[in-house]
């Protein structure tokens, strides 16, 4: 096979080089799509995307899946189909190992729900490897959190949470059973960052809809949502205007807000906190703190931080191995000396940057440094409300709230779809989604 020497490499790459991207989230999928589209005609590189799921769901939608306001099967993207249309290869599998000397990754076998092996364990070779594995919940060693809390770090876990909520209402709807007379649903959400606030608000919007579909026997006020935050305010790190608007909206929704309240333990039926009685809990949800997947700390000596994120330099390359890059939540990138927060916006910008950077590298062009351009933050507060701050406008920072902010929030998802499908297909998807929401039930009932 022919070889070419690239800038910054001590070893030659095969021609065309094999670029393997592990993780098909907001960053990895955009990177695979852009890179393959821009290089397939001249065969500049071979792009392979690896993920342990067959389908992609935009992670900021997980709170809607959990609350039942979004049917994940209607908004999913199939990797095999998308790969075929965009000229890259998809491989189903979970990353379990890395051999940097032989430039190979190890993928676990894939089994069905009955335990039958569908795809055997295998090795994939690469010239350039990009890790885009996202993040998982960080439990900080608090007793009971891992055992008794639901988390929103994947589609399957969001769907499982929805099933628990739906099951509780199904039990409460059994009018001939004594359980109905005692029905009480206490949902405790630990962490009042964007995910916690969005989930609490979405649940407040969707739970009343169950009464329209046969849950008339459930008494008004029998469900209670509590948002628990160890710090002094919701949305830590956001602007004072956003915090004020979000706090006002939460109080109007009759969501119990417990600030300066530290959780010390979680049991099957309660949340133990400092300085007050334990909170009864039917369903407990953990939305505070994330870390990179555990597998990264075991990947053949790659340097990681205490949250298992791969430490990268200004070009998003691992400081340990120049042939390995990391983007999104699983990478520690310092911007002006500060770690970037785990946000879809960061992963998307890094994907766009890295697509062009890899093209330049394959063409033996000089590398450039990644610079994050914060466009602002929007947080959903139910189906018709949102708060946000838009940065970088000609007027400086602009604060939004209400329906206008909700429109801006929705447009973020549509922008993601345009990146993946183009304007024409995204327009069709918007039309489809409008019809589905108009004709279907207000809450997912299965």
Give an overview in words.
The chain has 446 residues and is of the alpha/beta class. The protein has three domains: 3-137 and 290-362, FAD/NAD(P)-binding domain (3-Layer(bba) Sandwich), CATH 3.50.50; 145-286, FAD/NAD(P)-binding domain, CATH 3.50.50.60; 376-439, no CATH class. It contains twelve helices and 31 strands. The protein has a five-stranded parallel sheet with strand order 7-4-3-13-25. Strands 15-22-16-17-18 form a five-stranded parallel sheet. It has a three-stranded antiparallel sheet with strand order 8-9-12, with no helix packed on it. α1 runs parallel beside α10 (344-362) and α11 (403-421) packs across α12 (423-439). The longest helix has 19 residues, at 344-362. The radius of gyration is 23 Å and the shape is globular. The N and C termini lie far apart (53 Å).
List strands and helices in order, with pairings.
Layout: E1 3-4, E2 13-14, E3 18-22, H1 26-39, E4 46-51, E5 55-56, H2 62-67, H3 72-75, E6 77-78, H4 79-86, E7 89-92, E8 95-99, E9 104-107, E10 110-111, E11 117-119, E12 122-125, E13 128-131, E14 136-137, H5 145-148, E15 149-151, H6 155-172, H7 178-181, E16 185-190, H8 194-206, E17 223-228, H9 240-252, E18 256-258, E19 263-266, E20 270-273, E21 279-280, E22 283-286, E23 290-291, E24 310-311, E25 324-326, E26 331-332, E27 334-335, E28 338-339, H10 344-362, E29 376-380, E30 386-393, E31 396-401, H11 403-421, H12 423-439
Parallel strand pairs: 3-4, 3-13, 4-7, 13-25, 15-22, 16-17, 16-22, 17-18, 24-26
Antiparallel strand pairs: 1-2, 5-6, 8-9, 9-12, 10-11, 14-23, 19-20, 20-21, 27-28, 29-30, 30-31
């Amino acid at each position: 096979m022919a070889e070419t020497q690239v800038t910054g490499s001590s070893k030659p790459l095969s021609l065309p080089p094999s670029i393997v991207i592990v993780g098909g989230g907001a960053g990895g999928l955009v990177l695979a799509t852009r890179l393959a589209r821009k290089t397939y005609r001249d065969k500049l590189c071979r792009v392979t995307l690896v993920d342990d799921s067959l389908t992609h769901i935009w992670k900021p939608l997980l709170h809607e899946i959990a609350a039942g306001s979004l049917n994940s099967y209607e908004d999913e993207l199939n990797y095999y189909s998308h790969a075929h249309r965009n000229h890259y290869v998809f491989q189903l599998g979970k990353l379990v190992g890395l051999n940097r000397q032989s430039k190979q990754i190890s993928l676990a076998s894939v089994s069905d729900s009955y335990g039958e092996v569908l795809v055997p364990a295998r090795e994939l070779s690469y010239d350039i490897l990009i890790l885009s594995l996202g993040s998982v919940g960080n439990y900080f060693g608090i007793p009971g959190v891992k055992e008794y809390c639901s988390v929103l770090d994947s589609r399957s876990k969001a769907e499982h949470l929805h099933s628990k909520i739906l099951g509780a209402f199904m039990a409460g709807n059994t009018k001939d059973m004594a359980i109905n007379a005692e029905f009480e649903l206490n949902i405790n959400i630990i962490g009042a960052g964007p995910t916690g606030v969005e989930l609490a608000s979405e649940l407040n919007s969707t739970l009343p809809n169950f009464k329209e579909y046969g849950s008339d026997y459930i008494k008004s006020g029998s469900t209670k949502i509590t948002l628990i935050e160890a710090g002094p305010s919701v949305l830590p790190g956001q602007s004072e205007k956003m915090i004020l608007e979000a706090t006002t909206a939460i109080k109007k929704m009759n969501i119990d807000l417990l600030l300066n309240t530290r959780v010390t333990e979680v049991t099957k039926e309660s949340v133990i906190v400092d300085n007050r009685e334990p909170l009864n809990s039917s369903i407990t949800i953990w939305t505070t703190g994330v870390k990179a997947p555990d597998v990264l700390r075991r990947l053949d000596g790659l340097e990681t931080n205490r949250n298992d994120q791969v430490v990268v330099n200004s070009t998003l390359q691992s400081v340990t191995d120049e042939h390995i890059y990391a983007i999104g939540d699983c990478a520690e990138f310092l911007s002006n000396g500060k770690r970037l927060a785990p946000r879809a916006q960061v992963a998307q910008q890094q994907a766009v940057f890295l697509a062009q950077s890899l093209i330049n590298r394959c063409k033996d062009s000089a590398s450039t440094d990644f610079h994050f351009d914060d466009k602002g933050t929007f947080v959903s507060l139910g189906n018709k409300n949102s708060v946000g701050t838009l940065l970088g406008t000609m007027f400086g920072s602009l604060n939004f709230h209400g329906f206008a902010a909700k429109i801006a929030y929705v447009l973020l998802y549509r922008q993601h779809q345009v990146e993946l499908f183009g304007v024409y297909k995204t327009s069709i998807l918007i039309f489809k989604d409008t019809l589905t929401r108009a004709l279907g039930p207000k809450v997912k009932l299965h």
